[in-house]
Design a protein that fits this description.
Number of strands: 11
Largest sheet: 7 strands, mixed
Number of helices: 14
Radius of gyration: 32 Å
Helix content: 55-70%
Order of helices and strands: HHEHHEEEHEHEHEEEHEHEHHHHH
Mean pLDDT: 81
Length: 416
């Protein structure tokens, strides 16, 4: 054990001497490993950060949540001209499904609409996202409140002029004032603020809740009717936990076909978009990005490996005389072998650590500049260090073997 500790100490000393005495050559050799490790860890960190952000954004939704509407979230075999003829889902269908569906936990009727400006006295916040919905929406997509509450069933059914606002909307309209109970103007109408949401930051999918407002869907239905071009309805359905989702979808299809009077042989003129299918698609994309990143970064690592091998061959040649003296004094082949292997690994790990340090610095800068948290995870650091050590081991094995097999007499003579 003491022998290997001594080897490690001497190899570190040789590696540092190589860095000091041959700065340019060592820098160019380590640059390949640095770039390779930087590329791989940067890709892994970016993908991990994005994956974490996506899962955090979707954490409030059950993966079995269904979006029932005339549009599909993904590609469809139905021709576009036929899809354009599909009718919108209606409030009456929402009410029918709410009363008749088995294994139903929660169901909400929502409207997707354009962005609007919102006012309080002389203050205006532009381009806010408006989400008209029924009171059940709070039980499907978990909203966190800094103040107040969501509207109740009575307010939802009657279309009361009440509103919940995001944190940035509250700051833009009221500054440091308490928004609760204040009257704000939207669609030329007055709404009473009954809730303010917690700040959540940017959202990967859809608008951020910080710049969103929520109001009873029946208020907007009363204002614009059910056939306005600016409104796209959707029914959000959350089945009970543990339900057979395929059986649930089958019942949903049968009931909606019956309500719409579709005959046998007629295609479904609606789409059932299950959130789990969407998340599976995202997981697949994240996996493919990881693979592509590994392939691209692998070429950089290959170049880095050749650089390490080159510097080790030069190091063996420069120290041939010293190797001969060590052997003449009784050093065994494995001592010489491990000496150069340790040196190659140490040099490679130094390059890898520099690469990971650059990723860490860039992640800190981007997290400050952008409204997105880049994270260099513990496992990514382990992967980077292991890869660097492995590249050093592979690159140094042949130079180390050649050094260990040198004849001591010929090695000493060659240095004279």
């Amino acid at each position: 054990m003491l022998l290997y500790l001594r080897l490690l100490k001497e190899s570190l000393s040789f590696a540092l001497n190589a860095l000091r005495n041959n700065k340019l050559r060592t820098l160019l050799s380590l640059l390949g490993v640095t770039i390779g490790i930087f590329s791989i860890i940067a890709v892994l960190a970016a993908v991990d950060s994005m994956d974490r952000k996506i899962k955090n954004d979707l954490s409030g939704l059950d993966k079995n949540t269904i979006y029932l509407m005339r549009f599909s979230f993904g590609p469809s075999d139905i021709p576009q001209w036929k899809r354009e003829q599909f009718p919108d889902v209606t409030y009456e269908e929402f009410d029918y499904l709410k009363r008749s569906l088995n294994d139903l936990d929660k169901i909400s009727f929502n409207l997707f609409t354009r962005k609007e400006n919102i006012k309080y006295e002389s203050n205006t916040v532009s381009s806010i996202n408006v989400t008209p919905c029924t009171n059940e929406f709070i039980d499907i997509e978990k909203l966190k409140f800094a103040q107040g509450r969501f509207f109740n069933e009575a307010e939802s059914n009657s279309g009361s002029p009440v509103i919940i606002i995001g944190s940035e909307v509250a700051t833009g309209l009221f500054g440091t004032m308490d928004p609760m109970g204040k009257k704000i103007r939207l669609y030329g109408q007055r709404f009473t603020v009954i809730g303010v949401l917690d700040k959540e930051g940017s959202s990967t999918f859809g608008p951020s809740r910080d710049v969103s407002v929520f109001l009873p869907v029946n208020f907007l239905r009363r204002l614009y009717g059910d056939n306005s071009d600016m409104l796209t309805p959707a029914i959000l359905i959350k089945p009970v936990k543990g339900v057979d989702i395929e059986a649930f979808k089958g019942e949903l299809i049968q009931k909606l076909r019956t309500f719409r009077g579709l005959k046998t042989g007629d295609i479904n003129n609606f789409f059932i978009n299950v959130l789990s299918g969407f998340t599976d698609l995202i997981d697949n994309i994240v996996g493919q990005m990881n693979v592509v990143g590994w392939i691209i970064s692998g070429f950089s690592l290959l170049v880095g490996g050749f650089g390490i091998a080159n510097i080790m061959f030069v190091s063996v040649k420069e120290r041939t005389n010293l190797i001969g003296i060590q052997k003449a004094l009784g050093a065994k082949n494995r001592f010489i072998l491990f000496q150069f292997l340790f040196e190659a690994v140490i040099l490679s790990v130094i390059g890898g650590l520099v690469g990971m340090f650059l990723v860490w610095i860039i992640a800190l800068v981007l997290s400050k500049v952008l409204d997105f948290e880049f994270v260099l995870g513990f496992w990514n650091i382990i992967i980077g260090t292991s890869l660097a050590a492995f590249i050093g081991l592979i690159s140094g094995i042949i130079p180390a073997i050649s050094a260990s097999k040198l004849d001591p007499v010929e090695a000493i003579r060659s240095g004279m």
